[in-house]
Write a structure and sequence with these properties.
It is a single chain. 0% of the residues are buried. It is built from two helices and two strands. By secondary structure, it is of the alpha+beta class. Helices cover 27% and strands 24% of the residues.
Length: 85
Amino acid sequence: VVRAFIEHSLYAQGGVQRLWYTGPMFRYERPQAGRQRQFHQIGVEVLGSADPRADAEVIAIASDILQTLGLKNLRLDLNSVGNQE
């Protein structure tokens, strides 16, 4: 997403950019036992905002997508590498 953001000069539009992607991805290293070279991934990104609410928005969207897909027994674990404050 960041490469596309830079290559297509999306930063020149200014403001906050909300981007998403989906599709097949590929492991280029030798996969571990039981893993396949190809897998499918979805992602949501917000670029251009330092507001922590942007992170909350991405987490909420990702959670909504997984629930809409009908996945059961989901658990959302949050972690932070920030300071104790």
